[in-house]
Amino acid sequence: MKTKQSILISFLITLLLTTAGTAAAELGMQITTNEADQRNPAISGDRIVWQDYRSGNWDIYMYDISTGIEKPIITSGFYQWYPDISGDRIVWEDSHYGNDDIYMHNILSKEEMWITTNEADQWQPAISGDRIIWHDNRNENWEIYMYDISTKEETQITTHGSYEKYPPAVDGDRIVWEDSHYENDDIYMYDISTKEETQITTNEADQWQPAISGDRIVWLDYRNGNADIYMYDISTKVETQITTNGSFQGYPDISGDRIIWQDKRNGNDDIYMYDISTGVETPIITNKSNQWNPAISGDRIVWQDYRNGNADIYMLTLDAVENLNELQDYVNDEDLSTSTVKTLNKKLDSVITLLNKGEDESAIDKLEGFIGTVEGLEKSKKLTMDQAEYLITEAENIIKLIEISEG
């Protein structure tokens, strides 16, 4: 069912963006509302982190999707930036002692840990499980280092003497980075378990900005004269061109079968997605403002969005059933009578059950019945016009999604 739902979401978003400009502007949930800039989001499960300028310098903040609570992680008065998150751990680059060091915060224990103490600069960390990686200038050129939280051991990963320009990425036992070892920029990988380094790209053009999820590595590639997104499958050793549009596509991220990136084909920077399992490319956000620095974890995409004049963090959930659950949350959070809440939730529960069973026609019938019920509740003054309009719009979007998948 997940594959089918991913196809549904892809087509629904495409329909909304191409047929209703106002709907496109409403896609995505605004996570931050402060008038200062919030940049460089990262996501892991139910948690989003970012760097935040509301205090006049860059701090690290977190939003818990499950609780709806935002809180500061570090507000020391110095610059803290480029956060990453994996499970209960957050890492960032910190200028607390004059140079840039790597720090970690444990969400559960609320403990902060100073990871690097070398007087040189350490930049742009990434984390996966017990492993933290970063750029390190202690040898007067930029190398990749790793810290294992479980063993408390630090390891130098690269010894090329070249300049690794873009932040390294890590997933499980594999680290990827951009390396100028042979004058142009190539993508390299290091396997922590085997201690083997592999050159992933050998094309004479530049390859930048790698990201990794499981057996798949994605990056920005200039071999065609413009910036495209490419992918390499470690298990099959097959390289695939993902985008072919002649404009700029960059800053990719990947989670499972989904690749997202920043795309300039419409004149400004938008967010696009490619589903590896279906071969479908989908515009996620095509707002007239710029959307930068996307990140993905499972069914959730986050990005830095300029539609309000400053940089805010937005999120979009790609799971149809989860969107129905969020519609139920709306019903539960509104000031409605007990009988109205019970009636609406009962109908939405039946839709979720039918979708999970793959009984799409029956789900459409239930959603049409849900719309009729909402209209009746509005006429009897048990729902306001705004409440009814919101519920009907959301239900109609789900109906369109199901119909498109069938036909």
Task: Give the helices and strands, then pairings.
Elements: H1 2-19, H2 21-26, E1 29-30, E2 38-44, E3 47-52, E4 59-64, E5 69-74, E6 80-86, E7 89-94, E8 101-106, E9 112-114, E10 122-128, E11 131-136, E12 143-148, E13 153-156, E14 169-171, E15 174-182, E16 184-191, E17 196-199, E18 207-213, E19 216-221, E20 228-233, E21 238-241, E22 249-255, E23 258-263, E24 270-275, E25 280-285, E26 291-297, E27 300-305, E28 312-317, H3 320-333, H4 338-357, H5 360-379, H6 385-406
Helix pairs in contact: 1-6, 3-4, 4-5, 5-6
What report would you give on this structure?
By secondary structure, the protein is α+β, with helices and mostly antiparallel strands. It has two domains: 28-317, TolB, C-terminal domain (Neuraminidase, 6 Propeller); 322-406, no CATH class. Helix content is 25%, strand content 40%. A four-stranded antiparallel β-sheet has the order 1-28-27-26. A four-stranded antiparallel β-sheet has the order 2-3-4-5, with no helix packed on it. The longest helix has 22 residues, at 385-406. 43% of the residues are buried. Residues 1-11 and 13-26 have low confidence and may be disordered.
